[in-house]
Write a structure and sequence with these properties.
The chain is of the alpha/beta class. It is built from 14 helices and twelve strands. The model has no long low-confidence stretch (mean pLDDT about 95).
Length: about 375
């Protein structure tokens, strides 16, 4: 690769909503552009990622659909759109983040268009071990990047042992700018909710969905309240699971202790106000941004062991419990509330760990190393 001209790169995303995954893509594209790369972004029209990328001055292309399922007309549309972009801009790397965009780029590569295809695997959903996926991961993709070590074994049915061992782990970063100085968040948030300054606040900051496990935590609330009757729970975020969660809170008789705050822009402030941050995920959280943010806010955490819990050192920066286990969640919360000095120490340990391991610099430089190796450039 000649460094006389900027390397040309296209990132793609099928997501329309904002999430930890899209935040990673945004941070990476912005960081690469600041380092002189020619970075473009492709996503469906109306995606929050494209809106934020445009605000940051990144070129975006939104004439894509990237819809789930078998949709031949949509796939053909996306293939033709991507082919036109590649012909015009002659990208050296296309970096995909989901199945829809990956297959579109892989077919283009198979038919003779020359670029390196990179895929980041963000979640722990099973990979079907059929011939098409074996071709895709063994020959179609030049490099797979993992966001968590826990994802490696999921490729056993589609990649050789040597290929699996060669996949680098590059964790997602968080923006630490909102976690540098702490003020009176704890008292302010409680006052806004009409609570006393010493009210213990539990919190989950995540999309409301079955996979995120908020209902499992609601199932734990009666047991928690028997031991700590002054506890309140904040559920921050929106999603299709909100009506079911609200209904379950009412059925359990805890709706007066549960605050559904919806989507918020002041996440660092809310994280800092919590007594304990909880991530009760049932699946999918390979490298949770919310968990890292809670640790950066110096909060003790309770997390489930679904892969991303490798971010937490059990008993050092938080407590790890099995997924789908309301009793274990309740016991962990009880332990932290009855051992406040130990909980405070866990918060300090977690913040230090995040500062050392999850900076934006590490995400961008780690990915750059992959690109340079693929393109044959010196660091």
């Amino acid at each position: 690769m000649s460094m006389d001209e900027p390397p040309r790169l296209l990132h793609t995303s099928f997501l329309r909503r904002w999430s930890g995954e899209t935040n990673r893509i945004f941070v990476l594209c912005r960081g690469l552009a600041r380092r002189g790369w020619k970075v473009h972004l492709a996503a469906p029209e109306g995606s929050v990622l494209c809106q934020r990328a445009e605000e940051a001055g990144l070129p975006v292309f939104t004439d894509f659909r990237f819809r789930r399922g078998f949709r031949p007309a949509d796939f053909l549309h996306d293939f033709r759109t991507l082919r036109k972009l590649v012909d015009e801009h002659r990208y050296q790397i296309i970096h995909t983040h989901g199945a829809q965009d990956t297959w579109t780029a892989a077919l283009l590569s198979l038919l003779g268009w020359r670029f390196k295809l990179v895929r980041t695997r963000h979640n722990s959903f099973p990979i079907a071990a059929h011939p098409a996926n074996r071709w895709l991961y063994r020959r179609g993709i030049a490099q797979v990047i993992l966001v968590s070590e826990s994802l490696r074994d999921g490729f056993a049915g589609v990649m050789s042992e040597a290929q699996r061992a060669a996949m680098p782990v590059i964790p997602s970063s968080i923006d630490l700018s909102g976690y540098q100085c702490f003020g009176e968040e704890a008292a302010e948030v409680r006052e806004e909710l009409g609570l006393s300054p010493d009210t213990p606040l539990l919190g989950v900051i995540a999309r409301l969905s079955r996979n995120k496990g908020q209902i499992v935590l609601l199932e734990a609330m009666p047991r928690i309240l028997r031991q700590h009757p002054d506890v309140h729970l904040l559920l921050v975020g929106d999603g299709g699971g909100r009506p079911a969660a609200e209904q379950r809170a009412r059925a359990l008789g805890v709706s007066d202790r549960v605050h559904f705050l919806g989507f918020r822009h002041d996440v660092p402030r809310l994280q800092r106000a919590l007594t304990i941050a909880i991530l009760p995920s049932r699946s999918c959280d390979a490298s949770s941004a919310t968990l890292k943010e809670a640790l950066a806010a110096e909060r003790p955490v309770v997390v489930t062991d679904v892969g991303g819990a490798e971010i937490t050192q059990n008993g050092w920066s938080g407590l790890i419990v099995p997924p789908d286990n309301a009793a274990a969640l309740a016991d962990a919360v009880d332990y932290l509330l009855t051992h406040p000095e130990e909980a405070e120490a866990m918060g300090r340990h977690g913040r230090q760990y995040v500062l050392e391991h999850y900076s934006e610099e590490q995400l961008v430089e780690g990915t750059l190393a992959v690109y340079r190796r693929l393109l044959g450039a010196s660091p």
